[in-house]
């Protein structure tokens, strides 16, 4: 955890030092109508906003670290896996790579074709789908209850790999 906090701690110390230096400079000015005085106030405000942002990032990072360090028994079997997001999860990364390769073909592929491709690449369906008895993407797509979930997952993956127009 200290390795994660170190970059934030250094940045926080740097920003606080800069803010204190600007406050000292502002205290020495006699004429507050000077443009340099106003610019100094603006710079100080920017440093303060950046400091707030870094403090929020540090808090988020420490919460994420605490969440990831909890045992899977506490989090639940699927929650531990959900903490790995996006391309950091090798399954998601492989799935998106296959989809990206299909999209390079020019026309957008049908969801059924995407499922065939993912099955041929031996990509596993999500764990909670496996618990419901689905072993392949095509099985999940052919089930009327799961079809919307498959389409949503494909749509989400497409949006993550394609820039918005």
Description of the structure:
The protein has 165 residues and is mainly alpha-helical. The protein folds into two domains: 2-69; 86-161, no CATH class. It is built from nine helices and no strands. It has helices at 2-28, 35-69, 72-75, 77-82, 90-103, 111-120, 127-131, 137-142, 147-161. The radius of gyration is 25 Å and the shape is elongated.
By DSSP (H or I, 4+ residues per run), the number of helices equals 9
Number of strands: 0
* SSE topology string: HHHHHHHHH
Question: How big a fraction of the residues is strand?
Answer: under 5%
How many structural domains does the protein architecture include? 2
| Helicity level | over 70%
What is the SS-derived class?
mainly alpha
Which geometry do the CA atoms define?
A: elongated
The largest sheet is: none
Rounded mean pLDDT is 79
The low-pLDDT segments are 73-85
Distance between the termini: 39 Å
> What integer value in Å does the Rg equal?
25 Å
